[in-house]
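Consider this pair:
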Amino acid sequence: MDLMYAIINMGGMYICFACCMIVAVQRPSYGQKYLLMTNVCAFIITVGDALEFFAKTQEAALVATKMAYVGKMHIMLFALLFVTGFTQVGMNKKIAWALELYNTILLAAVMTCENHSLFYASISYKLLPGGRYILELEKGILFYAWAAEMLVGICGYCFIALKGGVLKGSKESKLRGTLIFMAALLPIVLLLIYMAGFFPDFDPTTLATTIMSVCFLVAIKRYGLLDAVQLAQERVLEDTKDGLIIVDDKQDKILYMNPVAMTLLPQLKDDRKDEVIEKLFSRQENVLDQNDRHYEIRISKVTGRAHGRENVQAYIAWIFDMTFINQYTSEMIKLKEASEQASIAKTNFLAHVSHEIRTPMNAIVGYSNMALRTQDTKDVNYYLRNIKEASNTLLDLINEILDISKIESGKMELVDVNYSFENMIHEISSMMGAQAGKAGLALIIEIEPDIPKWLCGDRVKIQEILTNLISNGIKYTKAGSVSLRIHMRERTEEHVMLHIEVEDTGIGIERKNFPLVFGKFEQFDNKKNYQIEGSGLGLSIVKSFVEMMGGHITFESEYGRGTKFMADIWQGIGHREKTDDKDIVPDDENIQIQPGRILVVDDNDLNCDVAKGILCCLGMQAEAVRSARECITLLEEGQRYDIIFMDHMMPEMDGVEALHEIRSKGGEIAATPIVLLTANAVSGVKEQMIEEGFDDFLSKPIDISELRGVLIRYLGVYQS
């Protein structure tokens, strides 16, 4: 018996060492690393057991046992890391580190076992014939804890190997999986026998680890366990998203099919497989529609030389999921159609805008020529009034195009300020009332008196929403009225929800045109409404502004009877003391403005002449320079001005740079009010420039009422 034990110990040690060497020379990989560590642990176990078997002293036997436990405590962890990597199950890093810590604590208990009874309750020695000692160990609580861990670990290993290796993949893959599975199953049988007490004088651990190493050795040498190329090829076939079926040359036996094919064609597992195979391999290309997905099947031959000629040895059916290509093609067709529709809409829009631009431009050019050819003051005044009206129409059109461009580019932002709701409604009433009166319509305004007098929000956009809706109603109403109604739908401590209704008695909208109402570059009933001026962008801008404020807008319409637009918009509750007095400057042409000395800075001669001319008409002493540098030179030479109107975009030094340099000089120069006079009138620019340090903002073309407001603000008025 001793001889047999000696052969097992020595033979196991050499086999484990050989397996370590074979694994070590394999191509480095995740699996190779952990399989090598598993076999190193197995080798350490066999060396420890061999040393214990041949121990001649009690101390040598105890040291050999402790050495063996270095491998025993870690072999299961490395085996689990290997099998989870091999089957691609994966192992949580936290679990791995927790097991490592647990095993390290148990190993520490083994290394100090003679000083306590936690791992071994008692340790005694037995002298056998031949002068060697064996340990007689009474198991303690930590031994059983370790044994339980080993049992659970081996069971987990077997389950993973069985599910991921034995029951899955190609024939060779299953054979490798079987050997990996047996590498743990046989040792667990021996472990159970040992724990049952059938080998009191012999620990079968060496035999178990030797069997494990032999299984790994066969799997490596016979079935290419660590052959990276072969494993990669098999993994590609297993993990590809396409189905793969291989049949023999007679097309009556399935040699291999991957999991995707089994999922797509479950009939291959039952009696219907012959029918399915015949259908699949009946032609070179085939299609399969299943579960709302579209598959394309392509057949190819596997040939090989036999008896001096090429023979078909098998057939391969690839099943490609073409759903995404069909969806992509469908989406591309939709995008092409949408692009064509957008192109047509934009072409129509440009044609319409071209007409809308040319109409006022024709009036401006025509009346200008007429004014130059007559000496009659009355006629000249009439022509100039018409030129001014056409200019305002053109300016409105340009502003709408700029607004929609900024909205589409995502650069439009809300600029919240405190404003007088009452003043805003008064302005809208004056402006739109005149427009309605000119069209022979009544403008009816009903405002709930409980709405706070001061609100906080983007006043410019709120006013544009209201004026656009009213203007739209006036344009499409031949007789009757346009009504504006505003009431509070909801109120909190800091906000109110305004419910806005604009209703007209106009021509209404046909139901078929409802989807086009808020569309960009869209107009309907063009022939019927051809005489109505406008870009067709107003309602699109209104909808964008309402949604930017977190609100929504809808409409009701009855063709031939009128339309009602309804919008809900949140506004903050403002406070008068937080409102800049600039917003409440009186607008009365009879007010006499105090004269002042004004400097206009603009690099364009025409702009300078226009600004100077208007200022002189208002009683100002106006001068002009063509660059920011000239302006600063005048100030440094001692010239003083009541207000400086500064252009924004100028060569060499722009308006913002000039502002900062003037402010940096301090004293009386720095205190001079500087008003930005710019053609950049896009929403948000005013607030940005005020933040830069400008005292006020005026857009080009110059609106005389706005210019009067600025002059009154900084110069004052005559007191009666």
